Amino acid sequence: MLAILMIADVSRADDDSKLRITQVESNLPNLKLFVELENVYLDNSKLKKNLNIKLNDIPVQITDIQSVKNGNKVAENTAYLVLVDTSASMQNSISEVQSMLEELYGFVSSEDKIAVFSVSNKLQPVKDFMSNDSSDQVSRNLKNALSLDATAGTYLYSGIREAYDRGRTAPDIPSRRIIILVTDGGVEGDCLSCDDLKSYLDVDRLPVYTLILNQQASVDEDFKNAADQIGERTGGQSFVSMSGNKLFAQFKASQEKSSILMLRCDNFKPLNLQANLTVSLPGSQGEIEQTVKFTATPAADNTTKLNNQQNLRTSYYGVMVILIPMILSLFFILAIGWVLLTKGEQPL
Question: Around 64, how many Cα atoms within 13 Å sit in the side-chain half-sphere?
Answer without folding.
Answer: 9
